[in-house]
Design goal:
Oligomer: single chain
Strand order of the largest sheet: 14-13-15-12-16-17-9-18
Structural class: alpha/beta
CATH topology of the largest domain: Rossmann fold
Helix content: 25-40%
CATH architecture of the largest domain: 3-Layer(aba) Sandwich
CATH superfamily of the largest domain: P-loop containing nucleotide triphosphate hydrolases
Distance between the termini: 30 Å
Low-confidence stretches: 216-226, 288-302
């Protein structure tokens, strides 16, 4: 459980945020690896010890399962936690304190609903990781401040993400490069990454000769009935990814992250044929997270499959969206071709940033043919070509 910090391990700026009175509402913004989810858990613990009535809303099912070890460590009651989907579909309890993680991905009306449902709000998020804009109205911290009347407390430093991986990840936001303030923010983001340990962002390219489209994906459709784009890959790329993850998972926690549920399902089936044990989560509808977080024990049901168990060091297969809030020593991102990414919505591009920023040691990008255009600003001295296995 590398992500969890005891109170005594909190850094200065984290400690300052941790010590804010619990009988006041707060609004916290922090980048990937800044410790905002840990701080939210510690705040929930303080409320629990004080006998306060609270609920803690986390955005995804995967993140809910990921933080359960921290919940157990702090002896928090699990029934005080709920996912965003549970909040939306179920009865919204009136409580004294409502904690919300990834607040930037909720809609304006939902933020107002949080305010109406509680006496005190404890909000945590990061607009750099706002990836649910396709079907939701974009909301930023200025809007949240206006709704809640709160001023943002910022966690400036990132303690997890290595600088060289951060520089590659932030380069994918090239659609913002014409904005001077965005460039300044990008430089600040890299400078504020405190992890100076050994880390390696790699790419592995494969010749387009012999490439083919991922089968079955062409028939998949998103929840709004739009056709899902087909990934371009090659046998050489699939063979490399299989060998690479087998080696990586011997020494570190490893996840393969993909842009669409259909690609996760395809790679899961490919790994299964190769005898590679892995845990997987995918939905049978694009744009939906899946089966409310319940494990399916490897059997596909109406919603999909979810066998993810964060108590193990087994290889994980997830979508970019499901990886939100998680972290792994090694992250592998296959199918990073321009054919896989024929669309250019901001949320799609930002989901690449979110996926890359899950890594805190190694990042591997693979592609057959032409690389995605949003990596054209990636420093060539950092994103080097990987050799043969």
């Amino acid at each position: 459980m590398d992500w969890y910090l005891d109170e005594g391990e909190l850094k200065d700026i984290q400690w300052e945020c941790h010590n804010l009175p619990t009988n006041e509402s707060i609004l916290v913004e922090g980048a990937a690896g800044s410790g905002k989810t840990v701080l939210a858990l510690h705040r929930a613990h303080r409320l629990w010890v004080d006998g306060e009535d609270f609920r803690f809303v986390v955005y995804t099912n995967a993140l809910m399962k990921f933080i359960l070890k921290g919940v157990e460590q702090l002896e928090l009651p699990v029934d005080r936690l709920m996912t965003a989907e549970q909040w939306r579909r179920g009865e919204k309890p009136k409580v004294d304190h409502l904690l919300v993680d990834e607040v930037q991905d909720f809609q304006e009306e939902e933020i107002k609903g949080f305010k109406e449902a509680s006496k005190y709000l404890h909000l945590f998020g990061d607009t750099f990781q706002q990836i649910y804009k396709v079907w939701k109205t974009t909301i930023n911290y200025e809007v949240i401040e206006k709704i809640t009347g709160l001023r943002t407390k910022r966690l400036v430093f990132n303690y997890r993400l290595p600088r060289n991986i951060a520089e590659v990840a932030i380069s994918t936001r090239s659609w913002q490069r014409h904005k001077e303030d965005a460039l300044v923010n990008a430089k600040e983001f890299v400078k504020n990454c405190m992890n100076k340990g050994e880390s390696y962002p790699w790419q592995k390219s494969f010749d387009s000769e012999g490439s083919y489209l991922v089968p079955d994906v062409c028939t998949a459709r998103s929840s709004d009935q739009k056709r899902v784009p087909q990934a371009s890959t090659s046998r050489a790329e699939l063979d490399f990814v299989a060998k690479y993850v087998e080696e990586e998972r011997k020494t570190c926690t490893t996840a393969v992250l993909l842009p669409l549920n259909a690609y996760v399902k395809f790679l899961y089936e490919d790994f299964s044929r190769r005898g590679i044990d892995c845990e997987v989560k995918f939905s049978n509808k694009e744009g939906e997270e899946g089966n409310s977080g319940e494990e399916t024990k490897g059997e596909e049901d109406y919603y999909g499959v979810n066998t993810i168990d964060f108590d193990t060091d087994n290889l994980k297969l997830l979508t970019y969206h499901s990886s939100k809030g998680l972290q792994f020593e090694s992250v592998v991102m296959p199918f990073m071709t321009d054919r896989t990414w024929p669309f250019s919505s901001k949320s799609s591009i930002e989901s690449i940033f979110v996926a890359m920023s899950r890594a805190y040691r190694n990042l591997m990008i693979t592609f057959t043919g032409h690389r995605i255009p949003w990596l054209k600003y990636a420093p060539e001295d950092l994103l080097k070509e990987y050799g043969d296995l």
